[in-house]
Write a structure and sequence with these properties.
This protein has a single domain, classed as Alpha-Beta Barrel (TIM Barrel). Helix content is about 45%, strand content about 15%. It has helices at about 20-35, 55-70, 85-95, 115-125, 140, 145-155, 170-180, 195-200, 215-225, 230-240, 245, 255-260, 280-290; strands spanning about 5-10, 15, 20, 40, 75, 100-105, 130-135, 160-165, 185-190, 205. It has 13 helices and ten strands. The radius of gyration is 18 Å and the shape is globular. α3 runs parallel beside α4 and α6 (about 145-155) packs parallel to α7 (about 170-180).
Length: about 290
């Protein structure tokens, strides 16, 4: 079993005229493998999973697994929601061939308290045949999984091996790193604060920007994990002006615009998201031209 340290890329789902573009998806997956990222994350938020039909979800997962052909670990991000039993049923019924771990976002909208969140993950821990990485992203879910709750889960749920921590709160991240068991994987889910969290001792980053810049961002992560922060900072600053454009509109409009400017896929997103507006796209293009 992979330990899921290092860089995981949260893959986009490319569209062409609102249909899934499998040719572009092949190109994107092969590019990540060629850049030596550590693992792939399929159908998380960046994959616009909430806009896909069940048939399209299977199509995308199967295609990524086929193209990858076992070369990198694959984390599947479809196992979230605000109905614990429904997630249990999905995990129990999903064919896991080619899937190495599950990414499970904290329950959203219903805004459970910490006791409910802990019980939710304890329930998932008991039924899975694959390791689970939790996903804490309060800006989207409306609820924050506190460091104390993460420690409680990490020390009592053997099948829950890590967390994608995307609160952007470095103090909270530092508490998790300090207090969780050494073998519990703590990855940043926020590109902009990923390097600071690495400097505090985190284990890697699950990234959006690495869809477009896997070599540069991957090198930054590897250098930081090796303690070479002077060199890692150079790459952090190289990409610094790209980040705001990726999140000026809801993700993945920005990263898809970036990929389209690189000629890798179209910028199409599905409603209720819309493509990056003209002025933001122009600013993004200008920022990209400064990167060698």
């Amino acid at each position: 079993m992979s330990d899921f340290h290092g860089l995981g890329t949260a893959l986009v789902t490319p569209f062409r005229d609102q249909e899934i573009d499998l040719e572009a998806l092949t190109i994107l997956v092969e590019r990540q493998i060629s850049a030596s990222v550590d693992y792939l994350v399929a159908l998380g938020t960046t994959g616009e999973t909430s806009t896909l039909t069940p048939e399209e979800v299977k199509l995308v997962v199967n295609h990524i697994v086929k193209v990858n052909a076992g070369r990198l670990p694959v984390v599947l991000g479809i196992f979230g929601g605000n109905n614990t039993q429904a997630i249990v049923d999905k995990i129990s019924q999903w064919p896991m061939q080619g899937i190495d771990a599950l990414l499970s976002v904290t329950p959203y909208y219903s805004r459970p308290g910490q006791a409910g969140l802990v019980s939710h993950y304890r329930t998932l821990d008991k039924i899975t045949s694959r390791p689970i990485i939790m996903y804490n992203v309060p800006s989207r879910t409306g609820v924050n999984l506190t460091s104390a709750s993460v420690v409680e889960i990490a020390t009592s749920c053997p099948n829950i091996i890590g967390i994608k921590e995307a609160s952007g709160d470095l103090w909270q991240g530092a508490q998790m790193i300090r207090d969780c068991p050494d073998d519990f994987v703590i990855s940043s889910g926020d590109d902009q604060t990923g390097l600071p969290l690495l400097s505090l001792g985190s284990d890697g980053i699950i990234s959006v920007i690495s869809n477009a810049y896997p070599e540069q961002f991957g090198s930054m992560v590897r250098l930081a994990l090796q303690g070479q922060f002077d060199k890692a900072r150079e790459l952090h600053y190289l990409l610094l002006d790209i980040h705001p454009y990726l999140y000026a509109q809801s993700n993945p409009a920005g990263i898809k615009a970036c990929l389209s400017l690189m000629g890798l896929c179209r910028a199409d997103v599905r409603l209720p998201l819309v493509s990056l507006d003209h002025e933001l796209r122009k600013g993004l293009k200008d920022a990209m031209q400064l990167i060698p």
